[in-house]
Amino acid sequence: MTSIQAPEVLISEVGPRDGLQSVKATMPTADKLRWIDALASAGLREIEVASFVPAQLLPQMADAAQVVQHALRHTDVRIMALVPNLRGAQAALQAGAQKLTLPVSVSPAHSLANVRKTPEDMVEEVQAVLRLRDDIAPGVFVEVGMSTAFGCTLQGQVPEDDVLRLAQLLAQAGVDEIGLSDTTGMANPAQVRRLFQRMFQEIGPLTGAAHLHNTRGLGLANALAAYEAGVRTFDSSLGGLGGCPYAPGASGNVVTEDLVFMFEAMGVSTGIDLNLLMAARAPLKAGLPGEPLYGMTPEAGLPKGWRT
Amino acid sequence: MTSIQAPEVLISEVGPRDGLQSVKATMPTADKLRWIDALASAGLREIEVASFVPAQLLPQMADAAQVVQHALRHTDVRIMALVPNLRGAQAALQAGAQKLTLPVSVSPAHSLANVRKTPEDMVEEVQAVLRLRDDIAPGVFVEVGMSTAFGCTLQGQVPEDDVLRLAQLLAQAGVDEIGLSDTTGMANPAQVRRLFQRMFQEIGPLTGAAHLHNTRGLGLANALAAYEAGVRTFDSSLGGLGGCPYAPGASGNVVTEDLVFMFEAMGVSTGIDLNLLMAARAPLKAGLPGEPLYGMTPEAGLPKGWRT
Q1: How many structural domains comprise chain B?
Q2: Which of A191, A190, A181, A268 lies closest to A232 in space, CA to CA?
Q3: Most buried among A3, A81, B25, B288, by the most CB within 10 A?
Q4: Quick check: is B196 in a domain?
Q5: Does a structural domain hold residue A306?
Q6: Taking the complete model, does pTM exceed 0.90, yes or no?
């Protein structure tokens, strides 16, 4: 906020979608809106605010359209929604979402288990979404996050060539941005650097976000490796909410507060005010009482002499 | 353990000293010995087992000599002790310690507050220790860990030139190894890389361990940066015990389990068996009931398909 030049990295906050989708409780809509407002005030410029899935499957997301419509008042924030398929994309575009993100799993086992489709079937689904976008909302950005890019709890190792092959198919389909997700918290810094370097070689500037988890504590080290490989968009979640529904007690998403602290401490600007970011934990806590939050920087506080 | 070649990095376990010194409870001697035995069994090859300070100041370390003498049975482990001054060094050498580590703070404010001596006075103390070592135990290694190298809670920023100047003085004094400590959890990866690179330029192979804290979640990212700068010795503590006596609730030392997981996942050998390492938490918990332990890898478990 205090920086005159554009931020050097884009922090894409996924808490209101990925986080809220992963917890059992449903946050009341009014609390969601207050939380999103606080995130926007802190300087976040991209927020994944909802998932467009049937309400009977995910009651936490029943108010997705209302949440998108409210969030659009933040004209300097790109309002993003997750859509699992064409039907979800239709609803998200009607609600006014400015960026869609579709998960496409590299692991066939994971893909079949989650959406009963192979990765190749999902590329066709993405093409249908792109056609719809071209027809009714040509300004909207379509991103694919490639799940299980660094390993899969069902399949085990995921060959890097499989990741690159799927990325090529998605690039040919016309996707605007293709990111890599460490869905299962199996990535390590050497692998993250190598795989993103290969992504830049093969699909150049279509290479998108690093979506990293902190399941085994390597979240920030992996983010550092991705940054060094050239990545400039990072998904994370306030308080580390969500990202790991299958491992109770283990943290999932990289914690936004710690990620922003790392970059700002390194002198890499994020455009985010750390004090306001930490203040955005209050509406999150209010809307999800008793839910455990992560984050070392909020616990320790900012160092003595930290610039404001 | 399974690797035939020598490990590529040395993990120096500081829990029995740094960890136990930071908690209020005193671990019974028998539990300490069981814990150290478990650490040795897991493949650790350097363990800081005690601090030689007056028992009235640190009752947790009253059994230091007994602990060193027991630990020496692990002939493939280098048994290390912290000594604050010449008197401590005398006691540690008499007990048979194979490596001494002396903390010398770069920040005059921190140094005066802790030991009522300036950094320059401490260099003289180190010289006295080196003379003693030469006289009575010439095979013993003497390391200095430079505290507050990345920032100080009293002084704020610590100029990098001050760090390098003190390193030069210590090198001229004849210290065997000079490491950098992020005593206050203020380091960031850019700073860690830059400062260790300058250390290698100025004092070459005398550059020693990275002693990093996880106070704001950056511990492993900082370790990665240090590794990339050429550091091959890393201090850490099982369960993240200790390292942060002044910030209750905030973790201190880098967690050995997560650090070893990171390096092994990257294909950088540590010589440590991760399953045995996690099993070494049991004697730690038994000896310090109720003490909170950290570590994401122990919570999440090793990934599917992890080599044994």
Answers
A1: 1
A2: A268
A3: A81
A4: yes
A5: no
A6: yes
